[in-house]
Every structure is written in C-alpha cells, then in structure tokens.
Amino acid sequence: MSSNKKTPVPKNAMKNASSSAGNAAGKKKVTVPELWPGETAPERFIEADFKTEKGARSDVWRDCVGAGRIGEGLRDTWRKQLAKCKKELGFRYLRAHGLFHDEMRVYSEDKAGNPVYNFMYIDDVFDFLLSIGVKPFVELSFMPEKLASGKTTIFWWKANVTPPKKHERWADLVRATVLHWTERYGEAEVKTWRFEVWNEPDLDVFWDPGKKTTMLDAYLELYKHTARAVKSVNRAYPVGGPSGAGLDFIAPLVKYCRKNRLPLDFISFHQYGFDPENPALPKIDRFGGNYIYLMKNLRHVADCFNKKLDDIRTNLRCDVPVYITEWHASPSPVDPVHDSYFAAPFILEQLRNTEKMACMSLWTFTDIFEECGPAPRPFHGGFGLMTFQSIPKAAYRAYQLLAALGPTELVSSDASSYVCKDAQGGVQALFWDLSHPTQGGKISNQDTFFDPHPAKDKGHALFRLTGMKPGEYDLRVTRIGYRAGDAYSAWLEEDGAKTDISREEIARLTRISRLRPMYRARIAVMKGEEFQLGLDMKQNDVFFVELVPLK
Predict the structure, then answer these.
(1) Residue 481, SS3?
(2) What is the pLDDT of residue 280?
(3) Which of 280, 353, 466, 510 has a CA 20 to 30 Å removed from the CA of 493?
C-alpha cells in the first residue's frame, strides 16, 4: 500500500492504512506519517519492531477458570460450554465450589453412624474434565450435613459453611477422596492437580465456626487436618490456601505452617474491582441486590495483586506460587458490568498487568451458576463468559483475541497492548482503551449498564510496525466494543431486554456476538518499509490487527 494513497475504508472506522518507505540515506523514518486532511495527530501510538523480541508471551490468563459449583458439571449445556472454552481459549484447570456438598452425595453415614463414601457423581464430572484436557483445581469444600457442626448455609443451594464436628472424620473424608482419585486416575496425573483448602474463610458468610473460637483459628485448624490428609496419600500433591476474599489470612497461614511444619505449596486469594467503601452501597437495585460501584482506579484488581505479591515475596519471604483463584469486575452475580462490552478492556488491562502471578482464574466461564438461584434472564449480570443459552459475551471475545496472539511477544511502546509474532512471520497486535464508564465510580453499575450505553469518541490511534519481512500480507482488523462482538447491547436495544427469547433470537444474538474483520485488505511491504495503520477509537474499544503472510 502506498503511503501517498489512501485505501478505501469504512467511514468512521479507519483513517489510514499504509507502509511508508525509508529515506534516501537508507535510514527508516520513525516519524508521524502525513495524516488525513483536517484531522489532528493521533493521541495514541502503538509501535513495535519485528526484530525486537520481549520473549515468550505470558499465558497466565489461560491457567485456570472458575465455575459456580461442581454439581452444575453434571449438565450437558455446562459441559458443552466448557468444551468450547477449552477448544477456543485453552483453559487448563477448572475450579468450582461444593465438592462435598450433599447433592454430590460423597459423604453419608449408615444407621450406626459409620462413614459411607460415594464417588459416582464426582467421577462423572472429573472423567469429563479430563476427557477434554481440563485438570481439576480442587477446592475442598463445603461441609457435608452429617459432618457439620452447625446449620449455617449460604447460596440458593444451601452450602454448609461450618467446621466439622470431628476433624478426624473430615480428614478421613479428604484422605479417602484423594486416595480414590489416585487409584482411578493414577499418581502421575493427580500430582498435576492442586488442592485448595476451603473458600473465603475470612468472610463470615463462608465460614461460621461459632462463638467458641475465632474464624482465623478455626480455619488454621481445618487447614492443618486437611493438608495432612492430602499429603498422607502422596507428599507430592500440592496443597494450599487460604483462598481469601481479602489479604488478612495470608500472613497468619504462612507463619502457622512454618511454626507447625505444615505444607504450604501455594498461596491463593481473590479480588474484585468494586468499591466496598462507597457510602451508597446499602441501596437496593431494581433486581433486588445491592448497588455496586466500580473503583475509581480501574486497575485496582491488578494493583492489589501486585502489591500483595511483593509483600509475600519481601516481607513473608515466601517463594511459593501465588494463584488468584477468583477475580472479576464485580463480586455480584447480578451485576450488568459483566455483560457489557466494557468488561473486555477491563479484563485485558488486568491480565496485561498481572503476569507475575502463577494463575489468574476468572470467576466464571458460564452463567450456568446458581448462587442466587436459576438465571432470571438471558443477560442478568452473571459472572460468566457465556450466558445460560451459550451466547458469548464481549468478555469471551477478549479471551478469544488473547488466544489468537502469536507465541512470541515483541516490545511495544504502549502499556495497554500486546504485539506478537508467530513462526510463519505473521504479526498480531491487540490494544484497547480503558475509560471509566461510571464517572469515576459515582454512578452505580446497575444505573449504567442495565440501559443502553453507547460509547463516546476517544480519538485517533496509530499502530506502526518496522522490520517486517518483505512480501504480501492479508491485513485484518477486528474490533470489540459497542455493537461489535457485543450481543448484550443488541439484546437491550433490539430485543427490549426480554426475559423470554426464542431459539431464533438466541441464534441471532450468537451471530451478532461473533468476531468479524471490520476491514480486510491485501497489502505489499517492500524491503525497508514500515507498516502504519490509523484507527478511530471509541471509549473501551478493543482492536485486533493481524498481518498474515501470503504465499
């Protein structure tokens, strides 16, 4: 493509696509190209050189993904959705609640009070996971009714969150379960799994030990018996915690394990991007839950993780892997921020800045999720990357673009971008805008995202690539944003946010969600030329630029 001739492009989409020659002295021009008449210079530059490699691209984002509870894995649609995620996104582990919940019938007692174990339902789910190449990230929770010391439950499906009446019985259950997996799947396989003790024991809704002890002391006691039970089967099986909603239990757990010579093979905790200090939180939204407000700092999730990682390494002097086993924009399963196109750049921004973690497990892959009961509407603010009806959200499409990047990352001038290459000489650039959609957290997510929210203009961006191999390329530009890879806006604006949608409407919304190139052209790059592409961006747009070599 000549730098002196504009290529026809869709109106208000791209302003310039070109490859510009070097100067007469043979040195490459790395200057702002001549722009379109009447336009201002780009506010955003994404520059890279094909020969300047940063290294292997991080895929921490791919390590694990969450699911509501393991019992939902008995359903066919859940399995089809996970298989799609595995095929297209490549998640390696799955973490879910409720392994020992009574619906799985793992633990019961005979008339004499003797333990009775039944692994058929767990086997059914775990056999499926392994059949599609997904490993279990085993969350050892919640308490079977016959073992529970109290009646406190959480969720629509009534998960018991009290300690065991007898820790020995709990340890026997854990040991028997891990031994069963070893016999069924083999020691070599189970060595690659992870065993996490409980879920968010620093929140009283998830951990109620009664008034005779503290939540922390009760958790440390549970951890001791659980970790020893796992290791009694095989010392190589990884076990860790505290799987906290916050950070308070991490240091006490590390110190407790050191003092008592207990294994701690990894540390896990969670973080969400909402503002717990907002004074408006007690309000009730139109669908019966608390209003949720985003943090003013849209990188709060990543900043929190990195700060705690530094503390773990420096102050606690602990070098075990740190697994983030839950995170998202909001902790509410009925928050429309999860459905919005805004979720795509929000997710990408956190993942771009958390590559020191050993795992970044998004909560969750599907809206087949029943903490508050069955899904009330096709889009209801669920955590999932897909709706109950398997319609991919913009968040799913963000992961799909991550998966499409080449394995070698190039050095990029822009912090909110990836520029990568593959073995065939192709280049992929993924970059995004992250703008606060709720006036810095002053407006609730419900008041913002339950209604149509078109994006405002953000200005011009320029992608420049030097050092390319001469030849012809297939140029493809794909966008996620308002009404692009965005079935939710179509459901709001075209379907009237209907609760009941037909099979034909589901199929239409699925088609709308698909990623399609907004622009495609065949270009030629001569020796010494640099490739340039100008784009108009809107707030919270995500762009994916591909240069595919043509033979």
Answers:
(1) strand
(2) 56
(3) 280
Q: Are strands 44-56 and 408-412 parallel, antiparallel or unpaired?
A: antiparallel
- Domain locations in the chain? 14-57+408-549, 98-265
For tokens 């319609």, the residue is: 391
CATH code of the domain made up of 98-265 = 3.20.20.80
Beta strands in 36-102 (DSSP E): 44-56, 64-69, 93-97
Place of tokens 């086993």: 325
Query: Is the separation of the CB atoms in 449 and 33 below 8 Å?
Result: no
Closest to 200 (Cα-Cα) out of 92, 104, 356, 327: 327
Give 489-529 pLDDT, tens digit per residue.
999 999 888 999 999 999 999 999 999 999 999 999 998 88
**pLDDT tens profile 455-497:** 999 999 999 999 999 999 999 999 999 999 999 999 999 988 8
Report the alpha-carbon distance of residue 495 to residue 522 in Å, rounded.
37
Contacts of 5 (CB under 8 A, 6+ apart): none
- Sequence-ordered list of residues with C-beta below 8 angstroms from that of 150, at least 6 positions apart, any chain: 160, 162, 163, 208, 210
Q: How far apart are CA 416 and CA 418, in angstroms?
A: 7
- Which two structure tokens, joined as six digits, stand for 54? 């940063």
Q: Report the C-alpha gap between 478 and 425 in whole angstroms.
A: 20
CATH superfamily of 14-57+408-549: Glycosyl hydrolase domain; family 39 (2.60.40.1500)
Tokens 């998830």 map to which residue? 206
First vs last Cα of the chain: how many Å apart? Answer: 18
Radius of gyration of the chain (CA): 25
- Say if 14-57+408-549 and 98-265 have the same CATH topology: no
Would you please indicate which residues are annotated as catalytic (active-site) residues?
Answer: 200, 326
Neighbours of 282 (CB within 10 A): 8
Burial letters 481-500, b for 16+ CB under 10 A, else e:
bbbbbbbbbbbbeebebeee
Buried/exposed 57-67: b ≥16 CB within 10 Å, e otherwise = bbbbbbbbbbb
Tally the residues of the chain. Answer: 551
Tokens, residue 312: 């773990």
Which amino acid would we find at residue 152? Answer: T
Query: What is the distance between the alpha carbons of residues 483 and 496, in angstroms, rounded to a whole number?
Result: 15
Q: Is 434 exposed, middle or buried (0-12, 13-18, 19+ CB in 10 A)?
A: buried
The tokens describing 287, both together, are 């669908």
The Cα–Cα gap between 507 and 511 comes to 6
